[in-house]
Amino acid sequence: MAIILRLDRIMADRKISLTELSERVGISMANLSNLKTGKVRAIRFSTLDAICRELHCQPGDILEYDET
């Protein structure tokens, strides 16, 4: 897939754990883990909004397009 999720990088930059972000955003650890590892095919805008709000970032910081 041409869209790459960089949630792991942003979480590391912000020094926030999977558990802490899961609690703050209100999504399960399993779903957040799948997002972090890029094992999802879709993400709801409401979820992306909540993640960006908690990590103080833009959607473009989390989502990356790779043309190759």
From TrEMBL:
Organism lineage: Bacteria, Bacillati, Bacillota, Clostridia, Eubacteriales
InterPro entries documented for this protein: Cro/C1-type_HTH, Lambda_DNA-bd_dom_sf
Pfam families found in the cross-reference section: HTH_26 (PF13443)
Domain of life (superkingdom): Bacteria
SUPFAM superfamilies, alphabetized: lambda repressor-like DNA-binding domains (SSF47413)
Residues in the signal sequence: none
Protein's UniProt name: Helix-turn-helix transcriptional regulator
Domain HTH cro/C1-type: start-end pairs: 7-62
